[in-house]
Amino acid sequence: xxxxxxxxxxxxxxxxxxxxxxxxxxxxxxxxxxxxxxxxxxxxxxxxxxxxxxxxxxxxxxxxxxxxxxxxxxxxxxxxxxxxxxxxxxxxxxxxxxxxxxxxxxxxxxxxxxxxxxxxxxxxxxxxxxxxxxxxxxxxxxxxxxxxxxxxxxxxxxxxxxxxxxxxxxxxxxxxxxxxxxxxxxxxxxxxxxxxxxxxxxxxxxxxxxxxxxxxxxxxxxxxxxxxxxxxxxxxxxxxxxxxxxxxxxxxxxxxxxxxxxxxxxxxxxxxxxxxxxxxxxxxxxxxxxxxxxxxxxxxxxxxxxx
Length: 307
Known about the structure:
The chain has helices at residues 3-14, 22-26, 31-40, 62-71, 79-85, 135-142, 148-160, 166-176, 184-191, 203-214, 251-254, 257-272, 286-298; strands at residues 19-21, 43-47, 50-53, 76-77, 97-101, 112-116, 124-127, 130-133, 221-228, 231-239, 244-248, 276-280. The chain has 13 helices and twelve strands. The protein is elongated. Strand 9 and strand 10 form a beta hairpin. The chain is 42% helix and 19% strand. Helix 5 (79-85) packs across helix 6 (135-142), helix 6 (135-142) packs across helix 8 and helix 7 (148-160) crosses helix 9. Strands 9-10-11-12 form a four-stranded mixed sheet. A three-stranded antiparallel sheet has the order 1-3-2, with helices on both faces. The chain has a three-stranded mixed sheet with strand order 4-5-6. By secondary structure, it is an alpha+beta fold. Mean pLDDT is 86; it is low at 251-259 and 301-307. The protein folds into three domains: 3-53, no CATH class; 62-191, no CATH class; 203-298, Endonuclease, Chain A.
């Protein structure tokens, strides 16, 4: 093998976590050359038909990448593995999880494999060179793996991070509805998230909204805009007719001096405009939150009415 071909194969491997398939290696090596490098340890067998250049460190996605390469060029990371690639919090893949298009099938030791007859190219992309389902398709696949409530939180998380949008999620749901089992959780999440829905700025904000509803209050308006003192303020949750607002104070957002000053100035402006703002943190109990919210809600009279 000439030096140029050697460099080309090494360059390809550098883009794949030090991995190459047998087919890729044979494009640069004769059969005897390949066997010689395997016998000498210069190439190490990782999976059947997949080799790693000796001495190359194993990257974070080494096992997943190797599984995709071993399953063939049409294989992609999916489900929990895709969730990890997209850094969706709360999703952990105990082993590589991949999908191949039907009628193909992949049977690999230590790999959770799926087959899909409905996987258009628009629902597949790459992440760090690894073929992977798009965030919207990943959420659809996870619908059968997690509880409905948890999936709803994953949808909100992806919406907040702009990984996907409700229109794309609905399109994926429509593509799979009636053909794939386990979409009930995604269907319920979409039903509760109509056009104009705001996912909030944090998981704590969403949990607070759910707590208010469980306490018997109406669903609050999320990300409600209020003009006070000539400034537009955005409230996490609000009952506009009662001028009652709720703020979830996460330390990662509000735990600085500038945030402290801003929050107080905003609360003063809103109070002057007739608003009551209740602030909550993750350290408060559900009962404390519910009792305070109910008392504040009952103590406010909707505008235009009398008691």
